[in-house]
Specification:
433 residues; mainly alpha; Cytochrome p450-Terp, domain 2; three-stranded antiparallel sheet; 19 helices; 6 strands; 52% helix; binds coenzyme A
């Protein structure tokens, strides 16, 4: 751990008793009060719903500064990685803490090629889902099932991690594309080793026996960028779910499957789908922005403006900025006119000038514009969160590995403040009124 406390402490006084709590600081200045011995020393826990104030681990993977809008993977600026790297290079970086040289990249690519197929028996699973099954539920089930087909991982989880990581990163895109093909009743398209990671995925999604899919470099580049932007985001809800399941000794596949389920929710990865539904609703309502802004502000209405706000960013999400710029480029290359893009721009403009949103630091996040690009690439709305999962996978694996290798890791097990009945006398069934 690269914590540095320089012997500084915080003082806590409870009922006149004084306790010293060490202060710790990360390499970029993150400050924390170390309460690891708090309960033992004081008898008190801390109450922190949603873990808004709690650091659950120390990590070397991703740094983000929510006030300045900075995001770095393994020390590299997201802007550089998104512009100059392949997604598989970034996956390697997250997994190995270094950018690969040519040789390393080639052998990683070869590993991914070797593991692109899924066991033929797994293909029958797809037939058993109802036709309109959610691709996120299929993804989570299939990833969990990989454990049964490739159980080597359980014997020595860390020894086989490279193989398992490559297997997962390669197979998840095959599973994702197959689930889409099944949902629209088209024959499956198998992976091809002559195509790039993103090109291969697009081909499996869109090739048909009657109409070959032409893999356009601009489309591949756009997908590559989106996956990089999604690749990690420190201790968010799904990553914490991955770590939580892994902390009990759960295998990597089960942990990733948990991450997929956590990502599915509309407050997290599901927001990209919700954004498009919201923009479509505004469009149908003759661009009645006022109505939706009023709903978002109304405390009695659960509606929120999807794609705005973030637990950590108090300014523009740097990933959102990159995506917004990419949006114009890709739509014009593909000659796509999407009325939802204009609606999105207008909505953003209104929000950025509205006191309710300004005072709460609610800015567009990564999900606000990503859906518009996915639409332009031909990806159906119900696959958007699956796309997020494909991108986030290397981050989840890197976080899982870091957690398992960290000697400080303990099983995740928060405390609670019990507010139910005090002890009650048991009443037998016959005596209950
Ligand atoms: C991301 C999100 C879950 C963060 O939640 P959080 O850190 O727990 O923040 P809170 O829910 O406490 O919100 C703080 C305040 O802003 C308001 N707020 C937050 N996001 C809002 C949104 N998208 N629309 C309207 N109001 C919002 C809350 O109502 C709250 O107002 P209050 O202080 O008057 O009660 C939240 O901003 C949200 O629901 N956004 C929409 C979903 C989304 O885009 N998710 C993708 C994230 S990448």
């Amino acid at each position: 751990m690269s914590e540095n406390n320089n012997g500084r402490t915080a003082e806590l006084i409870i009922d006149g008793n004084r306790f010293e709590l060490p202060l710790i600081e990360g390499v970029e200045g993150d400050k924390a009060i170390d309460i690891r011995d708090l309960l033992r020393d004081t008898g008190y826990t801390v109450f922190d719903t949603g873990y808004k104030n709690s650091a659950s681990c120390s990590s070397t993977i991703t740094f983000l500064d929510g006030k300045k809008g900075i995001l770095r993977y393994r020390g590299y600026a997201i802007e550089d990685l998104a512009e100059k790297c392949l997604f598989i290079e970034v996956a390697y970086l997250l997994l190995h803490n270094k950018l690969p040289n040519r040789e390393e990249l080639e052998s990683f690519r070869t590993l991914l090629e070797q593991h692109a197929l899924i066991h033929e028996d797994m293909i029958h699973f797809f037939d058993k889902f109802p036709p309109n099954a959610s691709p996120m539920s299929i993804l989570s089930v299939m990833v969990n099932s990989l454990h049964n087909f490739y159980p080597e991982m359980s014997a020595d989880p860390l020894e086989n991690i490279d193989m398992t990581a490559s297997r997962l990163i390669s197979k998840i895109r095959t599973i994702a594309a197959f689930s889409y093909k099944k949902s629209i009743g088209q024959p499956l398209v198998y992976p091809r080793n002559d195509l790039s990671y993103c090109g291969n995925f697009l081909n499996m999604m869109f090739n048909t026996p009657v109409r070959p899919y032409i893999v356009l470099p601009e489309v591949v580049a756009a997908l590559n960028k989106l996956l990089i932007l999604h690749a990690d985001h420190e201790q968010n809800c799904s990553t914490s779910a991955v770590r939580l399941v892994g902390s009990s000794g759960g295998n990597l596949y089960a942990s990733i499957s948990a991450g997929i389920n956590a990502l599915w929710g509309p407050l997290h990865g599901g927001a990209n789908e919700a954004v498009i539904q919201m923009l479509e609703a505004i469009h149908k309502d003759n661009n009645d922005y006022k109505k939706y802004i009023a709903k978002a502000k109304d405390k009695n209405d659960p509606f929120r403006l999807s794609g705005f706000g973030h637990r950590v960013y108090r300014t523009f999400d740097p990933r959102g900025k990159i995506i917004k710029d990419a949006c114009d480029g890709i739509l014009s290359v593909l000659n796509v006119q999407d009325p939802l893009l204009d609606i999105a721009r207008n909505l953003e403009e209104i929000v950025l000038n509205d006191d309710y949103f300004v005072s709460r630091n609610l800015y567009p996040n990564i999900d606000f514009y990503s859906g518009i690009i996915y639409r332009a690439l031909g990806i159906p709305t119900n696959m958007f969160t699956v796309m997020f999962a494909l991108g986030r996978l290397p981050g989840w694996i890197a976080q899982w590995r870091e957690m398992r290798e960290d000697k400080e890791t303990k099983i995740y097990r928060p405390r609670q403040i019990y507010i139910g009945f005090p002890a009650r006398k048991f009443v037998s069934l016959a005596e209950r009124s």
